Amino acid sequence: MALIPATLATASAADAPTPAAPSVTIGKQTTDPQKVRDFWTPERVARALANEKKDQAGIARDAAVAEAAAGATEDKTRGAAPRLTAEAPRVLPAKEAGVSATAAAADVPEMPVAEKVPYPQTPPATVVGKILYIDDAGEEHGCSGASIAADGDNTVWTAGHCVHPGDGRGSDGFYDLVLFIPGYKESLDTPGEYDAPWGEWVAQSFVAPEAWTQDQDYDEGDLAAFTVEAPAGYTNLTATVGALGYKFGYGSDWSDIIDSGFPGEGYNRTDMDGYTQFYCTGDVVDAMDWNPFDNRLEMNCDMGAGASGGPMATTEGEIVGANSHVEIDDQDQRINDHLYSSDHGDQAVAVINAINDAN
Question: What number of other Cβ atoms are within 10 A of residue 61's Cβ?
Answer without folding.
Answer: 19
